[in-house]
Amino acid sequence: MKKEFAILVVAVIIFGVIASGCIGGETSTTQTQKPATSSAQSTSETTNVVIYGYGSEMITLDPSTEFSNSIVVLANVYECLVKYTPEGLKPWLATSWESNENGTVWTFHLRKGVKFHTGNEMTAEDVKWSIERTIRMGLGPAFIWDPVKKIEIVDEYTIKFYLKYPANLPLIASSAYGAYIMDSKYLSKLGDDNAIADWLNKGHDAGTGPYMIDKYDPKTEVILKKFPEYWGGWSDDQFDVAIIKIVPDASLREQMVVSGEIQITRDLPLDDIPKLKENPNVVVDQTPSYQELYAFFNTKKPPLDNKLVRQALSYAVPYQDIVQYVLHGYGEVAKGPIPKGMFGYFEDLPTYHYDLNKAKELLAKAGYPNGGFKLVLTYTQGDEAEAKVAEIIKAEWKKLGIEVEIRPMNWEQQWALAKSDPAKAQDIFMMYWWPTYPTPYDFLFNMFHCEEEINFNLCYYCNSEFDKLIDEAVTLEGTQPEKAAELYKKAEKILIEDAPAIFLYYPDDVYVYHKSIKGFKDNPGYPQVVFFYELHKA
């Protein structure tokens, strides 16, 4: 999941789609210069429309398996039991929940009167069926439900989960991936899981969300129309139609949002943000994300199998300069493996800072007083930020007598090399990570837990003491969060001491929206999602 976004950015650039649209909040707007065959335009001529200019194409539409960009659609069409917000968990399709003392049995009370887009009413049967289907298919984000042993329907609006081990199930049930509730009565008539997936991936949906899929072209646009019977109701200043328009060219998206052709976008050139802040036609929304950039050391290959060398190189990174040069200040230097704002982030963790003298001292202690070795660093081709970071690292480590060969690779090549024999793999692997659901375990387990078969632990790191701490911490998140935090902190200190990766930075989420809309609020728990229902005409 984590790198598919970058690959697709590269891929969709080829298409060079020129998008069309209209000004949000305006009715019966005619854009005569746009192609007459554009369904987006024909829709905009008769309804109120808001358009999200998005940089990457969609992947799939099956809520049980989708693990990438298409959550920007799914989160508007489907709903989870619980909604994550930085302020805490909020009711969504469940109005309340409780657990037994040790967090192994959780009961959710469902919202009554919720209808699916098919007209059927949502009940506990749909919740059970949706989650069991995701578990049964075992693809993409299905692993989030690993704690679940059995799901029991108590009555039409009450459902009980029995867990194999204690877990924070409400947080899992808020996941941006793999936790959406589907209409079991409708979908189960379509056939087996594959038949259902085929139907969904053709652009159909069976959700309860405020919007329904009206048109689906994964390479150009997805048109959503409002669901009149949405349980939350509608006000006159909300949008009847929401369009996700694929516009790979960031400069073009910038022009479009300034002119009002699209109403909201993100991932614009960062050096243009200051002038956009002065433009009265747009609003710049900058908030911390739950994303982090890492450079993983190959801990199985000399000389990086030596902790002292890894520590030395961690001191030889100008973190603050990178944030200024690469992010133009739109982000922060990372303090450990967990993004700021998330549970499991600690402001007072010991961290590495730029200190070349310290780096030289550690290298000498490791037996490399003059460097004298070569390292291969790979990153995903097309990612300008990663390319800039790689060049900075190369220049700094040259001062230590270390040669760095930078290899930009497409994802398939980079991934294949990383999954090969670690003794022959890259020395440094650069990659972003963001949460499947906002738990530190998602970061610490996937990237640093011992693995028999290489998955996302691309530093090939293995420390049983670290594993034991995080494996216990995750079982206490729901019932003893303070104890869980204490264990996570101990584990993160071990990680920083062992230095299997460089923790580079947390980039901010920077959205730019047109003055014709209001109500936008970034939710880092649902990466890149614009919740159209929250938007209103200004």
TrEMBL record:
A family per Pfam: SBP_bac_5
One GO BP annotation of this record: peptide transport
PROSITE patterns: PROKAR_LIPOPROTEIN (PS51257), SBP_BACTERIAL_5 (PS01040)
CDD domains listed in its UniProt record: PBP2_NikA_DppA_OppA_like_7
UniProt entry keywords in alphabetical sequence: Signal, Transport
InterPro entries the record matches: Peptide/Ni-bd, SBP_5, SBP_5_CS, SBP_5_dom
Coiled-coil boundaries: none
GO CC annotations, alphabetized: ATP-binding cassette (ABC) transporter complex; periplasmic space
Domain Solute-binding protein family: 89-452
GO MF annotation list: peptide transmembrane transporter activity
Highest taxon of the lineage: Archaea
Stated family: Belongs to the bacterial solute-binding protein 5 family.
PANTHER family assigned to the protein according to its UniProt record, in alphabetical order: OLIGOPEPTIDE-BINDING PROTEIN APPA, PERIPLASMIC BINDING COMPONENT OF ABC TRANSPORTER
Protein name: Dipeptide-binding ABC transporter, periplasmic substrate-binding component
Organism field: Thermococcus paralvinellae
